[in-house]
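Chain A, query sequence.
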Amino acid sequence: MFQSQKLIVATLLSTIFLCVLFISNTHGQQQGPPPKYFDERFVIKSMSHISAAQATYRSTSGNGNFGSFAQLHAAGLIDAALGSGQKFGYSFVVKPAANTFAAWATPATYRKTGLRSYYIDQRGVLFGADLGGSPASELNAHYIDTCALWGINDNERCTIGAMRTLHTAQMTYAATAGNGQYAKTLQHLQIAGLIDQVLGVGLKHGYQYQMEALPGAPGSFRVWATPINYAETGIRSFFVDATGVVRGANRNGDPAGPGDPPVQQ
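Chain A, predicted structure.
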């Protein structure tokens, strides 16, 4: 019980930290790199891949520990180039520990092979910024959305996916930890391990997410996603409830609702 309480407190503190971080960044995310540095898009995907590989390694051959690049490669979780620490004109470094890991990607030659530096750790949240070729951290860089890299179309596509994720999470929560009841907040879904920390904050893909659970038997829930900055981070607003049908329309930044048409993706 004590360990469970410690985990909940740690999760809430991490959520509060991310919330403050995102609120300080008006859009909640940084968009993709300039066209001149197109390869950075692959670097961003590589950092996300490292995070996924570490999670898999820890739950399988790592026996609860995170791994080095050599160990991740030996387990077949990353390719030889990434395992060498040199790929896409970037130098990759990882420092694993029992319960944590940190990974960095910095341009092999600043401004020639890349502009921004990147950082990710066991939370799976990517940070990046133009730091003159110096390593990034959560303190000197911005949150990078690894799904939505190129503006409104990507933001809306990823938000539709996030709405479906939230619907699935609510169904799972009601069938397990909720004992038949839906989660009242995004934080409850996060603590249950059903959504990531970024979505748990309610700011992702250039959108703000709000959720409410409706009482009753069996009850229901509603989720809204509206652009953080209308016409800049998104055009359409989105809505989903227990039916699982994601609906959306251009509401000039106001919330969508059950009367809006189903989205096509």
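Confidence is low (pLDDT under 50) at residues 1-11, 22-28. Residues 71 and 83 are 9 Å apart (CA to CA).
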